[in-house]
Amino acid sequence: MEMDELTETETHGVDRATLLRRIAIGGAALSLPALATAREALAAPTGAGGGNYPAHPKWKFAFINHVTTNPFFVPTQYGASDASALLKTAFTWTGSTKADVGEMINAFNAAISAKADGIAVCVVDKSAFEAPIKRALGKGIPVVAYNADGANSGPKARMAYIGQALYDSGFAMGERIATLVPKGDVALFIATPGALNIQPRIDGAIAAIKQSGKPINAKAIATDADLSKELTAIDSYYLGHKKLAGMFAVDAGDTQGVGQIIQKHSLKGKIKGGGYDLLPGTLKLIQQGFLDFTIDQQPYLQGFYPVVQLFLYKLSGGLVAPADTNTGLLFVTKANVKPYLTTQTRYEGSSSKQKYPVS
Amino acid sequence: MAVVEGAPSRRRASQIGWRAAGAFLRQREASIFLVAVALVLFFELKSNAFLGSDNIKNVTESMSPFALIAAGEVMLLICGEIDLAVGRTFAFAPAIVWLISSPDKHHLPIWLGVIVALVLSAAVGLVNGVVTTLLRVPSFITTLAMLYLLNGITLHLLSGSQQFMPGGPTFQNIFGSQPDHYFLWLNSEFYWAAGLVLLVQFVLWWTRFGLHTFATGGNLLGASEAGVNVRAVKVVNFVLVNVLAGFAGILDSTRVTTIVPLQGGPDYMFFAVAGAVIGGTSLFGGVGTVIGSFIGVGVLTILQTGFNILGYSAFTFPIIIGLAILLSMVATVQFARLRNLGRFQ
Q1: Using CB atoms within 10 A as the burial measure, which of A46, A287, B61, B215 is most buried?
Q2: Residues of the domain holding A208
């Protein structure tokens, strides 16, 4: 009963909107001054579809994430939500809380069953998503990958990837390491080895270090997905390897952990440190000089662009196809860390408030 | 005349109807079955995609691995033990298959890989069982240790990274079909789960071993004095749950096409145990039903998929699951209390 009412109100809602719009158009045609207004409206159009787009169904896009409750993706959800408000669409946020591929595929299939109008998925597996993606595409549902893009090479079913070029970003980090550390042992920490959103970074970093030709011995060390366990793992690794010249990490938790261990044992300057993402702890450690750099991959854009691309695909009837989009590779160092620390903003997930100017 | 004759027969019919309803409600699985039906109706009213063929396929293939783990866990719970490590056996078994049958590794026939993986899963159960019964370590602790141990071994076997599940198209069709190749409409993984659940339920109800399992959990001392080898019963059930979990892991990796060292884990174990318990199995031994656990796991999966279809955010979802487990448990416990009251009257 209750559901019936809900659906009815929804239908009425749409009808009423259409009705009002028609009345407005009809009314405008009735009087000359109104015609003038209408002409003005054409010059600065405000369509019912958001911007000057025509009225369209309220398309619903499904985001399938591998760590739905991870703080990293809070700005991603803000990005998706802002784009949805702008374009008059809706989105859902489901998947797994701990990168369980089976669970993600179930959520993906549920999105197909629910007849989602588009799907954005973190492809954290080499092949498991190919068949479901093909099935969705076969049913006319556009699919883009975001944040993670599956295997390093080979054909991929998704229409486009929106996120950081993972291997390239790792390579850039490796080059940075080679300039910071002249020689010696370097530890590269990774929370979940093999996870396709971080493993390519470590592969890239090791390749770049090798290519630099410097006598640097880089070794990948697995820690844990849990922040406190990561800290313990890094601490004990350091205690067993005090001659390290550098400690770096390819995920958010480990990066903060590296900084905290450098701080704990007063190793500023002796051991170089750096990594990824913008945990508040990481930013502070950069400002205090315990970490040399962190890499911002702009998670806000990873929610914003998928909605925009899926929307344009639907609106244009497939003429505007989703295109690969690199959400960036920005090195944050002591020199440019200040605005990150002083601003509480939706774009970094530190505040839910809409505000302009941001600070 | 006809009216006079008709009235008592109608009364008799209604009496039979009530008696049938009463007999149904006295079944341990009844309450959870009603919950499942109510949930299906609820979600279908909310979104007509729920009973669509796509979603039926989705629900059945999602619940399969949990149903298999829960079936074994029910047997173990009935004889008064628990295995916390089954979620790790779930990852360990496919890792063994990969090691033996992958073209990147030893490239031996896939059936050999599966057999060795199942034998090693059984060995894991044997170790759990022997340490628990002969060395008298509580199964909670034995299997907690095994949970870590197996995880480490699996991480080493796979070098911490993701690997492709070996096996050709025929193997895939039989052991975890791909969406385009469902030869009997549903994923083959589901038929395995349903078949094995019925088999384990048969063993529990109609064999001497099933009787001994109930006796071991219901009254350990009495059973052993009556000549039941309670240790052997427990060890066999430890082996059973691990073989089922290993097999579930192989099926699921075949369906998903890759093996991840961290797949399964404690979450899978808890999901299966939750399904078993809301399906009518006691955590204290002596009471349980495999079919009930199958429906229990189904209820949890229906909830998960249903709310996914309605598009509830991942933040709200754990709240719903938590409430669902609580409510269905309160309902089950109170229902059982009322049932017992009725019997004592």
Answers
A1: B61
A2: 166-296
